[in-house]
């Protein structure tokens, strides 16, 4: 029962993080082309960024508990790669947060972060 609860939390965290990163990337791309969106991007992005961080927190907490509760063998190599990618998602997220003033600098980092989210999702299917 406890494993199912943490597994559900893990899926919710993944949905928040991956969904938020995807929405943030789409809005950022639109903002580069549309001046009106660019003006309100800070207000739009604030709740999305909170959603992404909430997803990361859920993933980390539930992931720790799942690792202790799982009774079947895990692919440790893929799990290490997944943890490494999640660490990079966090590092890039912090960098993006500190550089929000210069939108052009963060465009590449934002896309890289989105790619990392999808890579973590793909790897999760095989761990």
Task: Please sum up the structure shown.
The chain has 4 helices and no strands.
Q: What's the shape?
A: elongated
The helix count comes to 4
How much of the residues is beta strand, in percent? under 5%
Q: Please mark out the parts with pLDDT under 50 across 5 or more consecutive residues, or reply none.
A: none
Give the fraction of residues assigned to helices: over 70%
Q: What is the CA–CA distance across the termini?
A: 20 Å
Summarize the main sheet.
none
Radius of gyration: 16 Å
Structural class: mainly alpha
Order of helices and strands: HHHH
Number of separate structural domains: 1
Number of strand segments: 0
Look at the structure and give the mean pLDDT.
88
Structural account:
α1 runs antiparallel to α2 (35-69), α1 runs antiparallel to α4 (103-124) and α3 runs antiparallel to α4 (103-124). The mean pLDDT is 88. By secondary structure, the protein is an all-alpha fold. It has one domain. The longest helix has 35 residues, at 35-69. It is elongated, with a radius of gyration of 16 Å. Helix content is 88%, strand content 0%.
Present the secondary structure layout.
Blueprint (H helix, E strand, L loop, with lengths): L1 H32 L1 H35 L6 H23 L4 H22 L3
């Amino acid at each position: 029962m406890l494993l199912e609860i943490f597994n559900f939390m893990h899926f919710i965290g993944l949905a928040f993080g991956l969904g938020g990163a995807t929405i943030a990337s789409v809005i950022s791309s639109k903002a580069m082309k549309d001046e009106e969106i660019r003006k309100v991007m800070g207000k739009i992005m604030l709740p999305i960024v909170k959603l992404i961080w909430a997803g990361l927190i859920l993933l980390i907490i539930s992931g720790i508990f799942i690792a202790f509760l799982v009774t079947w063998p895990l692919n440790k190599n893929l799990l290490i790669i997944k943890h490494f990618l999640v660490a990079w998602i966090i590092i890039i997220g912090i960098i993006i947060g500190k550089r929000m003033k210069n939108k052009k600098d963060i465009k590449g980092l934002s896309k890289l972060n989105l790619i990392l989210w999808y890579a973590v999702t793909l790897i999760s299917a095989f761990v």
